[in-house]
Amino acid sequence: MSSATPYEQLEQEFRRLHAFRGALALLRWDAAVMMPRGSADVRGEQIAALESECHTLLIAPRLSRLLERAQANQQALEDWQQANLREMQRLRDHAFATPVALIQRMARATTRAEAAWFEARRQRDFGLLAPQLDEVIKLVRDKAALLARHLNLDPYDALADEFTPGMLSTDFDKIFTALSRRLPELTIEVGELQAARPPLPIQGRFGGSKQRALCVEVMKALGFPFDRGRFDESEQALSEGVPGDMRVTARLDRADPFTGLLGALHETGQAMYDLGLPQAWRDQPVGKARGMALEESQSLLLEQIVGRSRPFVAYLRPLLEKHFGVSGPEWEPDNLYRRLTTVRRSLVRVEADELTYPLHIMLRYELEQQLLSGELRTRDLPAAWNEQVQRRLRLTPADDLEGCLQDPHWAIGSFGYFPAYVLGSVVAAQLWEALREERPGLDEAIARGEFSSLMSWLRENVHALGAKVGVPELVQLATGKPLSASAFLRYVERKYTAGG
Amino acid sequence: MSSATPYEQLEQEFRRLHAFRGALALLRWDAAVMMPRGSADVRGEQIAALESECHTLLIAPRLSRLLERAQANQQALEDWQQANLREMQRLRDHAFATPVALIQRMARATTRAEAAWFEARRQRDFGLLAPQLDEVIKLVRDKAALLARHLNLDPYDALADEFTPGMLSTDFDKIFTALSRRLPELTIEVGELQAARPPLPIQGRFGGSKQRALCVEVMKALGFPFDRGRFDESEQALSEGVPGDMRVTARLDRADPFTGLLGALHETGQAMYDLGLPQAWRDQPVGKARGMALEESQSLLLEQIVGRSRPFVAYLRPLLEKHFGVSGPEWEPDNLYRRLTTVRRSLVRVEADELTYPLHIMLRYELEQQLLSGELRTRDLPAAWNEQVQRRLRLTPADDLEGCLQDPHWAIGSFGYFPAYVLGSVVAAQLWEALREERPGLDEAIARGEFSSLMSWLRENVHALGAKVGVPELVQLATGKPLSASAFLRYVERKYTAGG
Questions:
Q1: With contact defined as beta carbons under 8 Å apart, do B123 and B400 qualify?
Q2: Other CB atoms within 10 Å distance of the CB of residue A268
Q3: DSSP readout, A414-445?
Q4: A229 and chain B: CB distance < 8 Å anywhere?
């Protein structure tokens, strides 16, 4: 019927997958931004049907046959095509390792566990979640074992592969050990330094349309293309869509204009990554972002490193006056900078700053490995959690709500996902160090609201690589150095103990 | 693998189709309302992939086998299930009769013809479109012949079946003949009557948010559920979505608040139809609206019959004052009513009123049949068009732009679609006559802004039937009388010669 080669037929199949995934992204964006409240059930059916279609496409016997035939003739392919074939195989393996029966059992178990999680939070009692969570963990073990066999990895590494392709626990361990040696002490020191001179508070109401105008102006300066993308308000910040139709949203807080702006920066970082992916491969697996950790690195680079820097605050100062008509000592750059870089040890991950965030993640990383291996029994989680919090943050949760009930991730079956957050910070800092060396005058440019030098470096050295190589190789190629925590540690040391 | 009966397996397949169609509706709504300009190509790919998936599902050999097996055992099914099976078969037949190769040839030909149509309009010269249109007509003939064989209908009837299921040309002919006997004369008489006392003009600027608030208030009174639907502004009015998530839009004209309001009424009529479809069958073919003509009847009933009535204007008067702060003689009910019921013979279909609109359609209906049969050569269309316009409207187009170049329908391959417009008017008037008899006090209720009596009659007698029977049977069941033009003629006679 077709004179196309097996490889070409595969490209055709993955083009369909790309179109379905694009439709799914739009359905999700609409659900977050536009959809009437009562329509969630209908939308759920549409999303489930499309996701099931994507899964069916990947596990079809025809696709596996085509992969085998294309691999047999691999030497005829160019290197991008070979990398594409590897990514195709990886997607197929992930799909194969999550058979429909397991997905359905997992859906039922996580639905029950999520409901139990809400109730346990209400009563501040982990005991009410323990049996349901135990059930989820058993299923996650099954999934990890299946994935491990297909991907030829250890079970935990197989789960993490979805988010941090190419990274192993041993890689995480090295990074986390380096961070553990310095961060707990550093947070104490910085806390004491900052307590001596707290920033002046800001006051006022910051209307939605003014905040949107500010976000749009900053996004335009960053190069976000509004002819092929939108910015909207939503309950939770997100970046959805495909290159060619990117949808960025942020949650706007009428009492604090920085919540929305920093959220917009975060999501714009990810959107600019997607926009910078190799155009020729945009509908193929190799043309996608290199996993959640790299996306997070692009988000954090803009939100934390750029957005909370002295040059950016200098750029921001007149914009705040223009959009909100504010002035006074609390709006001066030095005060704003101190406000945006305040470090505070707290019990709650989502309230953490860039210095304490990794500590929250590391404790989860250790505990989820122990839960999966069985070393830690589910019912013993609260005690283990509290011990970790004490050791890493020197704080004590008053109850389970402040402790191990704060995140929904495990109840909904997300294991192996947390490390990607820290990896995002670490990669961002390493990229930042390299790009500052290669692009002198960056601070002055940012202070003038000129971001093209910054963005073009990221495009050339990160975005344009797509998913051609794994995370460690990508970082090595972009920075000339092996991936490690040292740049991050240098960055936080300078920023938080030497005045930024 | 499955213990489900063939019929149950079919329901499962069509549930998937329903989910895909729902996703498609959302993609289209977004393209019309939210999408950035530059994203049309990306959206086009997504829509094409999903439409192709729907087509593939319908022409799959497995589906045909299941249909055969289910039909062999049909006596075991309830009547709704049997009707559902008939609709499944009908959808399959339509899909089968439009093979992918023909769809692709048609796509290429209509793309060329649409471009030629724009150029021909620019130069006001049909000659520039004739060759491309000829090519399209040849392909439409192929499609009609294929459809005719599959549906066991005449070629033109096979094309029209998509929009007016259960109607034949002979049915249209009877209706159009009855209308032709009276409408041309009537439009002249009414025109003279009205010319003697033209309405006072309205003036002012009517802001978008005020117009939206008015539309929302009226839609709420009609029972539109805003917890499972939205109203937005767009370039063209539309109603998209599925019951459970209905999206209504209207084009708002800042110089005329009635454009938006009547557009919203039109689309709300169709949306309320979809919302009233039998809930138990909502994801099955039998649970869909009974084709475009019936949808149009629901739209026109609200927009033309209710929206341009004295009771509705009485309800509207205080709302206009509330939302726009307007008053004065031009805003009095009698003047507004005369404004909304002005009849004017014109050359352009989209500017026509409910009295002249059928005349525009009838000429297109005759000409498209002649073009398809070959009786009329494509290049002779302008002369034939102008002759028809003279005969039916007593007007003469100055050039082809005012004549046969005004609609894009034929250039994009839409044949058999026009009659559904008139059928919509005729059905709306017949339903209206029956419902007025069964629901006394309707005028007074409407004048008070109470629409529940009206809407519940439509729901029980029209919406709740879904696609269980064809158009003629549905009208017979709802009104107790065979479908004919008489109610429409009585309606316009009373409204336009006896003061409404």
A1: no
A2: 28
A3: --S-THHHHHHHHHHHHHHHHHHHHSTTHHHH
A4: yes
Give mean pLDDT, residues A170-185: 96
Q: Which residues pair with A229 in a beta bridge?
A: A246
How many Å apart are CA A153 and CA A150, to the nearest integer?
8
Choose the mutation target among A15, A209, A228, A279 for the interface with B, i.e. most B CBs under 10 Å: A228
Residue A163 phi, psi dihedral angles, 5° rounding: -105, -30
Could you tell me the end-to-end alpha-carbon distance of chain A, in angstroms, rounded to an integer?
64
For the segment A305-316, what is each residue's pLDDT rounded down to a tens digit? 999 999 999 999
Model pTM score: 0.91
**Mean pLDDT over the full length of chain B:** 95
B23/A50 CB distance under 8 A: yes
Q: How far apart are CA B394 and CA B37, in angstroms?
A: 42
Q: Kindly give, in sequence order, each residue whose CB lies less than 8 Å from that of residue A211, ignoring residues fewer than 6 positions away.
A: A252, A257, A260, A261, A323
With beta carbons under 8 A apart, name residues in chain A contacting B20.
46, 49-50, 53
CA nearest to A483, candidates A469, A496, A493, A500:
A469
Pairing of the two strands B245-250 and B229-233: parallel
CA–CA separation, A232 vs B47, rounded Å?
A: 23
**Phi then psi dihedrals of residue A230, to 5 deg:** -135, 160
The domain ranges of chain A are: 6-96, 124-500
Give the class (CATH, top level) of B154-500.
mainly alpha
Query: Using CA atoms, how far apart are residues A48 and A29, in angstroms rounded to an integer?
Result: 15
Report the C-alpha gap between B359 and B16 in whole angstroms. 41
In Å, how far is A399's CA from the nearest CA of chain B?
A: 38
Architecture of domain A124-500: Orthogonal Bundle (1.10)
Cα–Cα dist B321/B325, whole Å: 4
Q: B245: distance to nearest CA of chain A, Å?
A: 5
The closest of A6, A148, A2, A177 to A77, measured between CA atoms, is A6
pLDDT surpasses 60 at A2? no
The pLDDT of residue B99: 87
Residue numbers in A near B38 (CB within 8 A): 225, 227-228, 244
Q: What is the pLDDT of residue B101?
A: 87
Predicted confidence at residue A107, as pLDDT, reads 87
Indicate which residues of B carry an active-site annotation: 267
Amino acid B500: pLDDT: 65
